[in-house]
Amino acid sequence: MIYYYGFNIYNIKPTSMSTITPTAKQHPLIIKGSMKSLYQEVIKCKMCPRLVDFREKIAKEKRKQYNDWVYWGKPIPGYGDPNAELLLVGLAPAAHGGNRTGRVFTGDKSAEFLIKCLYDVNIANQPNSDRLDDGLILQNAFMTPVLKCVPPQDKPTAEEIRNCSNYFSYEMEMLKKVKVILALGKIGFDQCLKYFRNEFDLKLKDYPFGHDRRYSLPNGKILWACYHPSPRNVNTRRLNHEMMVELLDKVNSYLYNYNYVNK
Ligand code: SF4
Predict the structure, then answer these.
(1) Cα of 250 to ligand 1 centre, how many Å?
(2) Which of 33, 54, 70, 195 has an alpha carbon within 20 to 30 A of 43's alpha carbon?
(3) Does the CB atom of residue 129 touch ligand 1 within 6 A?
(4) How far, in Å, is the centroid of ligand 1 from the Cα of 174?
């Protein structure tokens, strides 16, 4: 028998392990506001069988370091201010990021990089994005992925992107005040062009993707291209903090000047 300071340690009952469970009730845009019905539908979607299987498998198997989490394991909605002038468009939630936490750019390496950059240019109120109840607020900005479920190897099929494009189109229609769309990565960039092609005669070849390339669309909105803040791009220094902050500064200046001229 082992005694420690007079206690029999085998009689000490372990306290129950507390779990972290993200719920729809913690997500402001699912419970209220203009995007509520859309996002209540999105989080129930099962249109892509491969992605449904994958997101649930990841949620069940988990990564060891997140064993105390009950993974979200569903499609994820956008996040931010629905009246924002800046829209950041990503690709899809990360397996142990958005698919775990229930929020876009939350709880993974891309989020760590991006939110710190947004904080450094006063778009985010804090440098971290860890979980639904962490207090993150985006000032005049909204972010969403074009694909709401995590794809295996971060590679969605053309059909899966097409399936989800309806939700993306609804978001674009609802975000009426957007003046600048910052597309994070080529897939997001092309999806934006495809959305606007419904309205205008645009040819994708006239809009080559490249970091910090900026295009004025026929409706006056700006489509701005940016390398995706993925660990691969950041680790290879294809995209670094300085480049990202410089681009975000330009976006801020554009919006400031736009509002000054049009006030
Ligand atoms: S990717 Fe989009 S369309 Fe496919 S299951 Fe997820 S939410 Fe539904």
Answers:
(1) 33
(2) 195
(3) no
(4) 19
